[in-house]
Predict the structure.
Amino acid sequence: MKRIIALFISTILLLSIAACGTFSPAAESNTPLEQDKVTEADNEETDEEDTDVLEALPDVVITNGDSTDGIELLFGSVTTTEGEYKEGSGAFKSAEADVKRLHFFLNNPVNITEYLNGYLYLKFCIDKPDNLETGLIVDIGTDSTNCRRWLIAKEDLKSGWNELCLGLSVGKYEYDVGSPDLTNLVYVKIHQYVSNSGAYKRMITIVDDIRVMENLPGQAITNCDSTDELALKHGLLTTETREFKEGEGAFASFGAEIVRTEMTLNKPIDITEYAGGLLHLWLYIDNRDKLQSSLTVELGSDSENCYQWTIPKENLKNDWNELYLDLDESLKIEEITYFRLLQNEDNNENITVIVDDIRVVKD
Ligand SMILES: [Ca+2]
Ligand SMILES: [Ca+2]
């Protein structure tokens, strides 16, 4: 049997946000590479897949953090120290005990109105997330009283580098302050989310590679927004607020079930270029203690030919969990038509389990 159990599981949890990949500077290479492909295809015959690529908008880079060219930097400074940037040659760093973490204006406004179903992406490093009082606020827009705002709980940041993909559409944790002009985005500020202004603790924060992108990185298996391209054999589509993490829906399973989600895709998805990468998914569970031991995730062509991961209940929290699971290179599974999430025991307990944004990304 072509199976493995991958023990690695990391739960980078971004409560307030859509989703995010642990890919390395892949974001900056995605669009140019894909555009190259389109150009080549256009010279020959454009097939269906290439037409999809053609529709992707290029990322809008707000700053690569390498310098202050084109930027009026009001808080933070450029670091070029090895290990203190993730992309290019530098990033914006702050090491003060201050409510502000990064604040700048762009000299040349950017228009992001075509990306409002997309994502604000940034690489964010923090040495001591526990030194935040509550969390972070990320603002972009016109000025401090006219901006789109995201709230990020400190529990959803890990010590070290985090990759944040903040959904640009307005939701529970993302909303407008005033009336930001997103045709002329000039203002970016990252600051602490505090309930009362006290003495701020010292911490180091670094921000690199801030960009706006239309699509999440990697290759979607399904965004779980509809059942158009697949047969959902266990679970059902939900579009209730708070019951999805990305887009407009997710696949939910309520009550006592062993198999929580099972689907077969109408068309195989080629993941060859993601061998050795990661499977990403959002997984919600309302009460992990009602599991006897664990959940299993399967991805492949069927239950006999698949990657398989066992996730102990201790590795989950009672909320949304963002999972990144290793795609073992040696398995050589190239085409995906099958996904399943199941409990490892039948404990006859009523549990709610939801999955969203199933996607493969590069490591
Ligand atoms: Ca950089
Ligand atoms: Ca979704």
Notes: The chain is about 5% helix and 45% strand. The radius of gyration is 21 Å. Confidence is low (pLDDT under 50) at residues 1-53.
